[in-house]
Amino acid sequence: MKQKLAYSVDNDNPAERKRFIRGTFDAISPTYDLLNRILSFGIDMRWRRFSVNIPGDLRGKRVLDTCAGTGDSSAVLTKKGAHAVSLDFSLAMLRRGVSTGRVRYPVAADASCLPFREGSFSAVTVSFGIRNIPDINVYIGEVFRVLTAGGDFVILELTRPENPVVKFFYRIYLFGLIPLIGGIISGKFTAYRYLPETIASFVDPEELRGMLEAQGFEQVRVYRKMFGVATVLHGRKAG
After folding, report:
1. What is the CATH number of the domain that holds 210?
2. Domain tally for the chain?
3. 52 domain-assigned
4. Which residues lie across from 26 on neighbouring strands?
5. How far apart, in whole angstroms, are the C-alpha atoms of residue 211 and residue 187?
6. Domain range for residue 207?
7. Are strands 217-225 and 230-237 parallel, antiparallel or unpaired?
8. Closest Cα partner for 214 from 124, 157, 143, 111?
9. pLDDT, tens only, 150-181
10. Strand, helix or coil at 84?
């Protein structure tokens, strides 16, 4: 059965969708880092640094970077002095992260079934990955479980700008340039059609805020970056 490219919540039967997503990221892993820099003009690293600074001093603390990919955010966390554990279900992405030195403590696992005890981490992050999790409510619940009391959950995701002028040009970039450039460089045209479709169809930041609060997160804040092209959400487990 042909897999739909758009995002949809599926908390009950996400296995088929996850197989498709894992295969997609395994396939683009050789060119993933290069295309991230080209397609974001390098701004993604600025957003990553902003998001991991939100929890404050992380020196010596255990932090779980979920959907870590090749480890860009893990490397930023390590630079801040955190003990960063990098979790992803794509072995190819993790292996590339290990080979570059960005991933030091890799864990290959499903983010919605975290192989850690309750209260294992002071903070959990996810950067540009939550829209690849169909069983999103299950995932948020797992994050809440593995956080210590007072622990921080930080989400960085690509979203949709609200300004009509910005939105017009962003859609040209999203559905024109990303599939073209990504497809040509990687040779994986379906993968670079999938990525824009999930950005265009992922849940709204305010709806995501509601999901976090429903799972028990408090003081949930939303930070829109670059006219809403990216959004950072920060929630805290009650201490």
Report:
1. 3.40.50.150
2. 1
3. yes
4. none
5. 36
6. 15-237
7. antiparallel
8. 143
9. 999 999 999 999 999 999 999 999 999 999 99
10. strand
